[in-house]
Every structure is written in C-alpha cells, then in structure tokens.
Design brief:
Order of helices and strands: EEHHHHHEEHHH
Strand order of the largest sheet: 1-2-3-4
Helix content: 55-70%
Strand content: 15-25%
Largest sheet: 4 strands, antiparallel
Radius of gyration: 24 Å
Structural class: alpha+beta
C-alpha cells in the first residue's frame, strides 16, 4: 500500500496506580490513583487502488440518484431557478458560481480518473495532465471561495454536493489506517462499507475526544486529496495548516 499522508496524535491514557501508605501506628492503607500517560499514536492515509475507485464511483452515482429522488434540485436547474428570482445577486453572479462549481466537480472527477493509473505506468502526458489539474483545481477552489462569500450557500443542498460529500466519506472509511509497530491496521475496522459505517457510528456514540479528533483529521485529509489539493506529505501539511 502506498502511503499518501502520515500524522501523529497524542492520546492521554489513564491507568490505575496503586500505592501503599503506613501510618504512625503501622496501619497499611492502599490508595489507587488515576495517572494519565501520554501515548503517541501514528496514523496514515493510503492511496486508493483501482478496485476501490470503481466501487467509490458506483457508490457516488447511487448517492446522487438518491438525492435527486429525495427531491434535491441539480445545480443546473437550481441556477436557472435562481436566475428567474429577484435577489441581491445578479444573474451573472449566480451563473458564474454555478459554472465554476460544476467545473470544479468535473476537474476533480478527471483527477481521480487519472490517479487510477499506477505511477509507474503513467505516460508523460498523464503526468502533465495531473500536474495541470492540480493547479487548475487550486485556482478553481480559490475562485469558488471568493464567489461563495456572496452566495450564502445557495448550492450546498444539491445532489452534486451530496454525492461529493458521500464520496469523500466513503474513501475516508477505506483509506484510514493506524501504524502499529510497522503494521497497518484499518482505523475503521475490517469488512465492507456497511461494517465500516457501523464502526464509525460506534466511535461517534462513544463521544471520545481522541477518536473524533483522529476521524476528523482523516476526513479532512481525504477531502484534500479528493479535491486534488495534495498528493504528497508536504502538500498535505501545507493545506492542513491553512485549514487550522
């Protein structure tokens, strides 16, 4: 497995510490104290293989269909509807945001398609296309963030956004690992998507601050990778630092 990003988190583990005290008349008293010991744990995000990408693509398409069936309005139709309504945004602003967002989704999909090809099998054209897409995606994200300030989340509840978030969550469940003395163990357990979701839900129910922090960091790293913003350790660290 190829590792894309490594990080460490410190977990404070409480353990019982027993002490024995003897008073002036020789009476022994056993006292038990909780002592917190900091333990460094190592985690990593791995690179998805072809099979996982294909499974994730099917999952994303299914989620898009569910969203449309549930009544979410696709971005193109939403943009047209907004253009016919009065509001503080001009038709050009609404259309520009919709077009830019759609462009970002297309570039992300193409970036993921090219990454199916193993690095050793990539042609010079593939490498050039990936490098260009990484630049294009960064620039498109920056433009989108600027435009989003005046959009008030108009396009947040679209099937495109729903499916994108589900894709990132899907990848997170399968790409997240813990390094235990050089051996990688899946952070969300073994099994299929359903089994990993159960594990994820169980961590949320425990309301454990450490587990939630690690899961959140995995989710952010996956989103960064999925969006084409990083594929190397130093790139992840730079983007992650900018989000904290």
């Amino acid at each position: 497995m190829k590792i894309l990003f490594k990080f460490e988190e410190i977990q404070n583990i409480e353990q019982d510490h027993q002490t024995e005290e003897i008073d002036a008349i020789g009476t022994k008293t056993i006292k038990i104290q909780k002592i917190s010991t900091p333990v460094t744990r190592k985690f990593c995000l791995i690179r998805p293989n072809r099979t996982l990408r294909e499974d994730a693509d099917l999952h994303t398409r299914a989620e898009y269909g569910k969203a449309v069936k549930a009544g979410m309005i696709p971005m193109a139709l939403l943009a047209k509807r907004f253009s016919n309504d009065d509001g503080t945004l001009s038709e050009e602003q609404k259309q520009e945001y919709a077009t830019t967002y759609s462009l970002l989704l297309d570039k992300e999909k193409e970036y993921q398609r090219l990454h199916v090809i193993e690095e050793k099998d990539r042609t010079d054209e593939d490498k050039a296309a990936i490098a260009k897409l990484e630049v294009d995606i960064r620039e498109t994200n920056e433009k989108l963030q600027f435009l989003a300030k005046s959009q008030n989340g108009l396009y947040d509840n679209t099937p495109e956004m729903w499916a994108r978030n589900k894709a990132i969550a899907y990848y997170t469940l399968f790409l997240s690992y813990e390094d235990k003395d050089g051996k990688l163990a899946p952070f969300f357990g073994d099994g299929d998507h359903k089994a990993k979701l159960v594990k994820y839900d169980s961590l949320e129910e425990l309301d454990d601050e450490f587990s939630n922090r690690v899961a959140g960091r995995f989710m952010l790293a996956t989103a960064i990778y999925y969006s084409g913003l990083a594929s190397k350790q130093e790139e992840f660290e730079k983007v992650e630092k900018g989000n904290t």
